[in-house]
Write a structure and sequence with these properties.
The protein is built from 13 helices and six strands. By secondary structure, the chain is an alpha/beta fold. It has two domains: 47 residues, Arc Repressor Mutant, subunit A; 266 residues, no CATH class. Strands 1-6-5-2-3-4 form a six-stranded mixed β-sheet, covered by helices on one side. The relative contact order is 0.14.
Amino acid sequence: MARLSRAEAQEHNRSKVLAAARAEFIERGFRAAKIDAIAERAELTRGAVYSNFPGKRALYFAVLAEAAVTEPDSAPSATTPGEALAAFARTWVARLPLSTDDERSPARLGADVLPEIMADEQIRLPYAQLLKLNALLLGLALENLAFADLRTRTGRRVRVAETALTTLHGASQLAAAAPGFLEPFDVVRACARLADLDLDDAWLPPHLPYAVKARPVDERWSPPAGAPTGGVVAILGLHRLASVEEAVRAAPAGVPVTVALVTSSPDELAPLARLALAEVAGCLREAFPPAALPRLRVLHDDAGALAAAAGLPAVSDTTQAAVLVRDGRVVARAEGYGACHAAAEAATG
């Protein structure tokens, strides 16, 4: 049998830890689970567990993020925002625990996520921004369907998306806290009706007197594998994610927009980011036809490699920067308030 490389061995151990942790969390619950028990299940040392994850909470987020990654069972057939929101909600509530489920059912695995977030101020702000990003992704998909339907062409749908996600997250918490209270089909019907709400929604660009301007540059673009080869690339810390809408709204048609998520605490916040985004990404793929999915591409830049390629050797949760890439060159860059808008506007020149 071929000897595993160091990287392969690390990935193998990480997979063993995740599988053992999932079994431990299901059997004992997050609160009662022990790192020593997880190490024993994985047939590894306690140190091996901590070499992959800084603590039990980060491991919990990683387990849930892995479970949230799904592929659609069939091609979505929604043609209107209402149909798509109903399908989105249907996929969401299908994951919720039933009143007949055992206390240690896998469906109840995520019951402690919100209490953990509420207990730590350092997590609440990143989580709020991750929800803002999710609402933007859902809102853009709704806008794409509305624009395709001549009967329902309207403007921004992000507030409708925020309202739908508020409803669905509330349903998740009630399903865990008050088994049997929730009627899932009522939630689906309510979300479908939200598509018709007029919430007086409008996007406002950054307040220009305080917004930065893009600087013309001519630098080689050498990103890591899998990174975008052109368009607007936003590098945003987990406290600044909502600002990517500036790039989406200002970029000309046909110019791709990518957001790279960075953080000064990747060991714990990166798993949370993956969890929050995976929950919505799976529902989007189940509910919306591929043509309606948002053009905004989201990347997790845990090691800061993409940020470094964009000229940012150091990042934090407040990082707010963007570059415009054309023909393998960085042709404009901006950092600070309004950076995403500035880089996107440079693409019109």
